[in-house]
TrEMBL record:
Pfam family, one: NHL
Phosphoprotein recorded as keyword: no
Keyword Repeat: yes
Organism, as annotated: Prosthecodimorpha hirschii
Keyword terms of this UniProt record: Repeat
GO MF annotations, alphabetized: hydrolase activity
Extent of the NHL repeats: 170-211
InterPro entries with a match to the protein in the record: 6-blade_b-propeller_TolB-like, NHL_repeat
Entry protein name: Strictosidine synthase conserved region domain-containing protein
């Protein structure tokens, strides 16, 4: 009874889940240009996920898995549909989720197994993978009802039918560890072996524990969190694939407007997050998102953005790397430590780049200027 009454009260006051306020990017999240000016490692069409077995670096690009060596990508596997998540184990096992509702686990000798079921349902909408040792695979399922390509509508409808599974690779049995999640898009193990989940639609990271509800450990992020990877030096690297803004938060809470938008407007022009910078006047105009003297202001409201956040061991943000409204390296889904470097895949910028964790955003040509986005 308390839940429905609280929702009615929040709707009347515009508080709680009915609020459309968005936290500012400030402190450790203060905007800069460190992602936009990062060194290009490889030009890759729509890179989505990065994985490493400790020796080689792999990137998913559409239906292909590429091995990157000295900036050159060599195709190591190709599937009939887009790859939606990727993981590799220290002994050379590779797991790839394919948009055609199956998961492929490849052994070091080249033998592979296809998994088409998770519990009582299909292997649908896998958004993140990580090995828990060599014998188990943790699986984030963004939605049990919708394909991964339907992420934009799922977000605007504020759905929460995602789950996290543990797959035993010996028996092929899957155990659901948590359900009712708002598009889980990142998975990581902490130093104690606990499971951390980036819950994208709720703008937070939660910790999972047996028999307990997910516990928020980092909440109210200014964007939609994606993949999460531990840093060998301590802490974690978190990618956020798009920014939040008040227009989108407002539209999410207007069901009549949403219904008309879905029915009458092409999805590319919805008032919803985007993975790529604006390229047409048909996109939603957002007040300050206009050019001045022929140049788009870097602090303008925007539907796309590039953002990576470095977290300490307690999941507190300590540094961030940005590609702002006037940049091109947007839609970052993954940031992975590899070989002493920190690599990021900008899906909206068709680039894999190397960021400098020692860079000081407060000094030099990458310094932030102007108002906050």
């Amino acid at each position: 009874m308390i839940g429905p009454l609280k929702r009615l009260w929040d709707g009347f006051r515009g508080s709680g889940d009915a609020a459309v306020t968005v936290p500012p990017m400030d402190g450790a999240l203060r905007p800069n240009q460190l992602l936009e000016t990062a060194r290009l490692v490889a030009a890759v069409p729509s890179p989505d996920d990065l994985a490493s077995d400790g020796r080689s670096l792999f990137v998913s690009s559409g239906p292909r898995i590429l091995r990157l060596v000295d900036g050159v990508g060599t195709v190591t596997a190709e599937f009939g549909a887009e790859i939606t998540a990727l993981a590799a184990s220290p002994r050379g096992r590779m797991a790839a989720a394919v948009a055609s509702d199956h998961l492929v686990v490849t052994e070091p000798d080249g033998a592979s197994t296809t998994i088409a079921r998770l519990g009582d349902g299909p292997t649908r909408c896998i958004t993140a993978l990580t090995f828990a040792g060599e014998g188990a695979l943790l699986i984030a399922q963004g939605s049990s009802q919708r394909a991964a390509a339907g992420w934009k509508r799922d977000l605007m409808e504020r759905r929460s039918d995602g789950a996290v599974w543990r797959l035993d690779l010996a028996t092929r049995q899957a155990e659901r560890l948590a359900g009712g999640l708002g598009w889980p898009l990142g998975l990581a193990l902490d130093a104690a072996g606990g499971i951390l989940v980036a819950e994208s639609w709720r703008h937070r990271i939660v910790a999972l524990a047996p028999g307990r509800a997910p516990r928020p450990v980092l909440a109210d992020l200014p964007g939609y969190p994606a993949r999460l990877h531990p840093d060998p030096a301590g802490g974690f690297w978190l990618a956020l694939f798009a920014p939040r803004n008040q227009l989108i938060e407002f539209v999410q809470r207007e069901p009549a407007f949403l219904a008309r938008m879905f029915a009458e407007v092409d999805e590319a022009f919805w008032a919803a997050p985007s993975l790529r910078p604006s390229a047409t006047f048909l996109e939603p105009l957002q007040g300050g998102a206009q050019k001045h003297l022929g140049m788009l202001k870097p602090w303008a409201p925007t539907r796309s953005y590039g953002l990576i956040v470095r977290l300490d061991d307690a999941l507190r943000p300590v540094a961030s790397y940005h590609s702002r409204a006037d940049g091109m390296r947007h839609g970052v889904f993954t940031c992975l430590p590899f070989g002493g470097r920190i690599l990021a895949a900008a899906k909206g910028g068709d680039a894999v780049v190397e960021i400098d964790p020692a860079a000081d955003p407060a000094n030099g040509p990458a310094a932030a200027t102007g108002a906050q986005p």
